[in-house]
Design brief:
19 helices
């Protein structure tokens, strides 16, 4: 007869060791990881000076500030082109300087503060890289600008305007994401146990460039934490509260809404979809609507107070920015399979990818509904649908954490598209 007690003890010990290693590793990342300056510059400056630059003026303002620091001749010689955030196309850097001069939103005090922040960011560039700092601006100024939604801008603008930029404050701001990640995995441990948390963190850490955003990237994991809280409420069968947190997460990023949509469909079709659980779906949907609506309205009011831009224009400008940003990518990337097919070497058209995507979605739904899974597990598995219908940057790794298939054993299948 198997020694279940011994197996359980060894499993717990191994999981505990892994969990301690994860915590120590996360602390080491916070203390030793180099700043993700490109991300930090976009999200800090874009949120703090949103009243002045909105979604289209950040690179123009940066160009003008760098000219005042280094001189126009040096800037134009090193940074010959800048991305025009209104059109998404490249323009000569001198035109960006001219566009800044046409911006009426700046007052002298705010402009001096902006220049000081730009100079500090440049100092960080020189501290953490051997390249001359001005060379880094050449990479930053051809990126895609500030694309965060008003829900993000509302609270981050308050924080960034309240905390002056400095080496200590940057570390504090950067550590916020690490704290959110730590809390997220503590919640996952409460839901799925030590083994589930360890496997989830291994997946998280193995995703390409994921840890680049753990520090210095400024509040990039707010949605991540909100989903973890939503899963915890779901495990307690608090469908309405889970929906509220999922709605908040969806108002910060679009793909949590896609995950939620698949969760509702799959859970409604699953074997556990009894009458009382179907009523739970109603609570989840109503909570999601209320959470997303209230959070979005409150954020819009905050942005309106600080920018004096009408609520309709606030969201219209954001949607326009995202639309222009999307035009710079191949439309085939709308299907996450594009990268996989590209790696395999198959030349195909968009309709082929859509058909393959639909087939895989149907197969995945059928596979999940055949099992009697708990709601929080179905919600976790719903993450698998997103790469099939959305292009989510370079996050190609997927994880499948299943329910225990027999006493004291947990079956894990890690599916990676790398």
């Amino acid at each position: 007869m198997p020694d279940y007690a011994g197996i359980k003890q060894r499993t717990f010990t191994h999981s505990l060791v892994c969990w301690i290693a994860i915590l120590l590793g996360l602390i080491a990342i916070i203390l030793s990881r180099k700043p993700h300056i490109l991300e930090f510059a976009h999200y800090y400056l874009g949120a703090k000076y949103h009243n002045e630059v909105n979604y289209t003026g950040l690179y123009n303002a940066l160009s003008a500030a760098i000219v005042e620091i280094h001189g126009e001749d040096e800037f134009i010689s090193v940074v010959p082109v800048v991305r025009d955030l209104k059109s998404g196309k490249y323009i000569k850097s001198r035109f960006a300087i001219e566009h800044h001069a046409e911006n009426p939103n700046w007052i002298p005090k705010r402009w001096e503060e902006f220049k000081n922040d730009v100079f500090f960011i440049q100092t960080m560039l020189g501290t953490y890289s051997e390249k001359p700092p001005i060379l880094h601006w050449r990479k930053i100024l051809v990126d895609h600008g500030y694309n965060a939604p008003p829900t993000y801008t509302a609270y981050v603008s308050i924080i960034t305007n309240a905390i002056p930029l400095g080496f200590i404050s940057v570390y504090l701001l950067g550590a916020f994401d690490a704290v959110l990640i730590l809390l997220t995995f503590l919640i996952i441990r409460r839901i799925f146990g030590f083994d589930g948390a360890v496997i989830a963190f291994i997946f998280f850490a193995s995703a390409l460039d994921m840890l680049s955003y753990v520090t210095w990237a400024l509040f990039r994991f707010d949605w991540f934490f909100a989903i973890a809280v939503a899963l915890w409420f779901l495990s307690k069968r608090k469908y309405f509260l889970s929906g509220i947190m999922w709605g908040i997460s969806s108002s910060l990023r679009i793909f949590p809404a896609v995950i939620a949509a698949f969760f509702v469909v799959v859970f409604a079709l699953s074997r556990r979809a009894e009458r009382k659980r179907i009523s739970g779906i109603g609570g989840f949907l109503s909570g999601g609507f209320i959470g997303a609506t209230v959070f979005s309205v409150m954020s819009t009011i905050i942005v309106y107070i600080s920018t004096n831009i009408s609520p309709m224009q606030i969201w219209a400008k954001f949607i326009q920015r995202i639309s222009i940003h999307g035009q710079t990518f191949n439309i085939l990337n709308a299907v996450g399979l594009d990268r996989l097919i590209e790696v395999i070497g198959i030349k195909t058209y968009g309709i082929t990818e859509v058909i393959i995507s639909i087939l895989l979605v149907v197969i995945l739904i059928w596979t999940i509904i055949r099992k009697s899974l708990k709601p929080e597990v179905i919600a976790t598995l719903s993450i698998l649908f997103t790469p099939l219908v959305l292009y989510i940057s370079h996050y190609l790794s997927l994880i499948h954490i299943s329910e225990p298939t027999r006493p004291l054993y947990i079956s894990y299948a890690v599916f990676c598209l790398k």
